[in-house]
Amino acid sequence: MIEVNDTPYDWFTNMNMYNLLKIMGYTLKNPSVLININNEVIPKSKWDTYIIPDNAEITVVNLLRGG
Amino acid sequence: MSHSKLFTETEISETLNILHTPAVASQMKQLTVGIAGLGGLGSNAAVSLARAGIGKLVLVDFDRVELSNLNRQAYLLEHVEMLKTEAIADIIRRINPFISIKLKQNTITEQNCMSLFKNVDIVIEAVDGAETKAIIIETILTQSETIPVIAGSGMAGYGKNSIIKEIKMKRLILLGDNISEVAPGVPLMAPRVCIVANMQANAALEILLGEWK
């Protein structure tokens, strides 16, 4: 079980960032999405190899234009 | 007119000591804040940090002031067409001419981000583009082991005070409602942008003055 933005989801072996993005409804390599796992921002350069651990607490934020 | 002639450094410094307490005022003087982008968020955050008596500001923007910026950015009519870096420096010098200011006319990229902000204590992310926001946050959090980032996301429109929130992560604070993106009919306007800009400046002080848990 993992928690994404305070909502629980089923975890499975070798769950990766693209599985996570699909769950959250984002397209692959969406450049403005920020993923924070167990209190650590995971940069896009590591998305290809990162495996999500069971019991992960995850925050997914889609940054918005404007500043 | 040289604004440093109006009051001495000692007069300004002692006034801030009385207002903010000597402990906070002297700590403030030691701090360096980097601001990435000098639009609605960055220009207003810079002004608040200058009023708070920050020691040094590293201010980065590639752009010039346009008339259409004046609905929300700190600039004045006389600044239109000036570089934003030069214009914000002019405003800051009129508030406190003894704040050290480093100006950089750069577009921020993954490649130059760390060298632009290498000697700062904290970075306020205040750019317009969502992709650049992500690049700045990811680059600083992964390439520096100490510098926190205060980012802004979702501040277009007006009203809805109560949905503006603060998300705290490790070395990252995200401010805004995360819903209100700039869109046709949903412009950036001074009240809401200034709220988020000042929440960013406020969060920076919270971290730097050691209150952050």
Kindly describe this structure.
The complex is a heterodimer of chains A (67) and B (213). Chain A is α+β, with helices and mostly antiparallel strands. Chain A contains one helix and five strands. Chain A has one helix at residues 17-24, and strands at residues 2-4, 7-9, 33-37, 40-41, 57-62. Chain A has a five-stranded mixed sheet with strand order 2-1-5-3-4, with no helix packed on it. Chain A is globular and about 35 Å long. The relative contact order of chain B is 0.16. The model of chain B has no long low-confidence stretch (mean pLDDT 96). Chain B has one domain: 3-Layer(aba) Sandwich (Rossmann fold). By secondary structure, chain B is of the alpha/beta class. Chain B has helices at residues 9-20, 22-29, 40-51, 84-95, 113-116, 130-143, 190-208; strands at 32-36, 56-60, 100-104, 122-125, 149-152, 165-169, 172-176. Chain B has a seven-stranded mixed sheet with strand order 3-2-1-4-5-7-6, sandwiched between helices. In chain B, α1 packs across α2, α3 (40-51) runs parallel beside α4 and α3 crosses α7. Chain B contains seven helices and seven strands, in the order ααβαβαβαβαβββα. The A-B interface holds A 31-34, 36, 39-41, 43-45, 59, 61-67 and B 37, 39-42, 125-131, 133-134, 137-139, 141-142, 151-156, 167, 169-170, 172, 174, 176, 178-182, 188, 193.
Write the layout of secondary structure elements.
The complex is a heterodimer of chains A (67) and B (213).
Chain A: E1 2-4, E2 7-9, H1 17-24, E3 33-37, E4 40-41, E5 57-62
Chain B: H1 9-20, H2 22-29, E1 32-36, H3 40-51, E2 56-60, H4 84-95, E3 100-104, H5 113-116, E4 122-125, H6 130-143, E5 149-152, E6 165-169, E7 172-176, H7 190-208
Parallel strand pairs in B: 1-2, 1-4, 2-3, 4-5, 5-7
Antiparallel strand pairs in B: 6-7
Helix pairs in contact in B: 1-2, 3-4, 3-7
CATH architecture of chain B: 3-Layer(aba) Sandwich
What Rg of chain B is obtained from the alpha carbons, in whole angstroms? 17 Å
Distance between the termini of chain A: 36 Å
Shape annotation of chain B? globular
Q: What is the gyration radius of chain A calculated from CA atoms?
A: 11 Å
What's the N-to-C terminus distance of chain B? 44 Å
What are the secondary-structure elements of chain A, in order, as H or E?
Answer: EEHEEE
Number of strands of chain B: 7
Helical percentage of chain B:
25-40%
Strand content of chain A: 25-35%
Number of DSSP helical runs of chain A: 1
Summed over residues and divided by their number, the pLDDT of chain B gives a mean of: 96
- What share of residues are in beta strands of chain B? 15-25%
- Poorly predicted ranges of chain A (pLDDT <50, ≥5 residues)? none
Biggest sheet: strand arrangement of chain B: 3-2-1-4-5-7-6
Largest sheet of chain B: 7 strands, mixed
Based on secondary structure, the structural category of chain B is: alpha/beta
Per CATH, what is the topology of chain B? Rossmann fold
- The secondary-structure class of chain A comes to alpha+beta
Sequence of secondary-structure elements of chain B: HHEHEHEHEHEEEH
Briefly, what CATH class of chain B? Alpha Beta
